Amino acid sequence: MSEENAIEVRHLSKRFGDNLAVADLSFNVHRGEVFGLLGPNGAGKTTTLRMITTLLKPDAGQVKIFGHDTATEGRWARSLFGLTGQYASVDEDISARENLMIFARLNGLSRADAKARTAELLAEFSLEQSADKALKHFSGGMRRRLDLAVSLITRPALIFLDEPTTGLDPRTRTQMWTTIRGLVAQGSTIVLTTQYLEEADQLADRLAVIDHGKLVKLGTPAELKQQVGGTVLTFTVNQASQVKAALRILAQTVAGKVRQSGQQLSVTLSQLTQLTPVLETLKRAQVAVSRLSVTEPSLDDAFMALTVGQN
Amino acid sequence: MDVQTHSGNVVMNTATMAYRNLLKTVHNPDRFMDVIIQPVLFMVMFGYLFGGAIAGNVQAYLPTIVPGILAQTMLSAASGSGSQLREDLDSGIFDRFKSLPMAHIAPLAGQLFADSLRLVIAAITSLTTGFLMGWRPAAGFGWVLVCGLLAIFTGWALSWVFALLGLLAKQATTVQSFSLITMLVLSFVSNAFVPLKSLTKPLRVLADLNPVTYVITAIRQILATGGWTHESLLVLVAGVIIVLVFAPLTVWAYDRN
């Protein structure tokens, strides 16, 4: 076990009937990083997370959390992480304070410690105002915050978040991101699943793209984007008669693949330095162009290129 | 990690879980319906409605109806265990419980412990209502206490059965409607409210076979004779057998979830 790894996953597999939900998955999560599990619906993200967090028994494979095998030292491993599930796993009928107290006690804190920690977390997650209200009156964002607060009672060094912002409005989502970044700043290791590419791009240091239970790609968001291809230059030739000339110029200066749609041309640049010669040559040949844009590949492009999904 | 975590302690975890279940009851007064409002309502309503018709007057009817309502309330309170467990399993909260470094059996044990407190409340409410209506059993307070404990034990034994149903059922609503129907049929097709000899033959056969009839008969005999009887021993042994059979089954079903 290397000291840098918070989690080691080896050859993890799970079958539900005829459906191979997770197939021979192996990866490491480094200490202190945000690791994203990205994939379309039904790709096996949640199943993988449930196996790592000991909620589901794998058919095959091994998971180590800070060096502890979850199969043989499950209870020990469980004391090292906090989990926020996909569905709010807090008690609806009781108040936020009572929820925190009960979970603090279940985590083994003494009554006094539980009380102190509850007060701290209520303040940290701005829930003091509604601490004694029943959760029925909570908004979705408040519920998620409480849910996360409950996962953080023991200040775990490792935090699992299963789709932490699904169903939240953009403002609450941004708040959640700020909270997650705060945890990272405190040195926590975070594993999150998401189907939002923007979220993965914003938060994750490294991503595992999963599709049909298999690991499709592992890397930083930048690496994944690079995979799909470089920067794309797009412009429209003002006069139809000059399209041919423009195509010739592109062939000479870039040598990349050119796509044409009427008077609109786009070409993939292998390096950004190719941009200036293209524009200069066009100007010298007096080919007037407009609606010029240079776009970096998005994680969306990477996602589409890498996954098939169920439909 | 600067927060001290002790390795899970079964007793402490169970106590916390029981506390949680009681808190839920306190916050949701409708969960008190079956243990407080129902026995009071049924005792008063049935007592004054049927007392005259069945026993001549309300006073004479009380020795019949008080044990009847007591048994019915126990059955009803016990049937709540199943739907509560199912609700927990259906919400995400069980995942949270399972991911905590706590005693594995605590959520189930806490539920059954909290249920026994509900049963105690239900028994006290039923007996007190009877007393306020003028019920004065000849056997004295000691034997009333014995009857209360026997009823609570029977109810607790049954809550294992309902807990198993809750764990095996697909939805909380299934458990609820099944529990309600079971409660209604078992408590009414018995000797709880009417003398068995007034029933038609087929109904009487059913009422005679009904376990609730045995419990009620046992309680009435204790109160009438002021002593432990053959019937009450039978009920106690049956309760022990139910626990011995259903507790392992319930734990098995719980582990499977």
UniProtKB/TrEMBL annotation, chain A:
InterPro entries cross-referenced by the UniProt entry: AAA+_ATPase, ABC_transporter-like_ATP-bd, ABC_transporter-like_CS, ABC_transporter_ATP-binding, DrrA, DrrA1/2-like_C, P-loop_NTPase
GO process terms (BP): daunorubicin transport; doxorubicin transport
Localization (cell): Cell membrane
UniProt KW Translocase keyword: yes
All copies of domain ABC transporter, residue ranges: 7-237
Domain of life (superkingdom): Bacteria
Entry GO terms, CC: plasma membrane
Topology of the protein relative to the lipid bilayer: Peripheral membrane protein
Single annotated GO MF: ATP binding
Stored SUPFAM superfamilies: P-loop containing nucleoside triphosphate hydrolases
Gene3D superfamilies (alphabetical): P-loop containing nucleotide triphosphate hydrolases (3.40.50.300)
Keyword annotations from UniProtKB, A to Z: ATP-binding, Cell membrane, Membrane, Nucleotide-binding, Translocase, Transport
Matches recorded under PROSITE patterns: ABC_TRANSPORTER_1, ABC_TRANSPORTER_2
Family (UniProt): Belongs to the ABC transporter superfamily. Drug exporter-1 (DrugE1) (TC 3.A.1.105) family.
Protein name: ATP-binding cassette domain-containing protein
Species in which this protein is naturally found: Levilactobacillus suantsaiihabitans
TrEMBL record, chain B:
Any one cellular-component term (Gene Ontology): ATP-binding cassette (ABC) transporter complex
GO molecular function, one term: ABC-type transporter activity
Domain ABC transmembrane type-2 residues, every copy: 30-257
Record's bilayer topology term: Multi-pass membrane protein
Main location: membrane
One Pfam family hit: ABC2_membrane
Cellular compartment(s): Cell membrane; Membrane
Transmembrane regions listed in the UniProt entry: 36-55, 117-135, 141-165, 177-196, 233-254
Keywords: Cell membrane, Membrane, Transmembrane, Transmembrane helix, Transport
Domain of life: Bacteria
Listed InterPro entries: ABC2_TM, ABC2_TM_bact-type, ABC_2_transport, Nod_factor_ABC_transporter
Family per record: Belongs to the ABC-2 integral membrane protein family.
The name this protein goes by in its record: Transport permease protein
Native source species: Levilactobacillus suantsaiihabitans
Lineage, top ranks: Bacteria, Bacillati, Bacillota, Bacilli, Lactobacillales
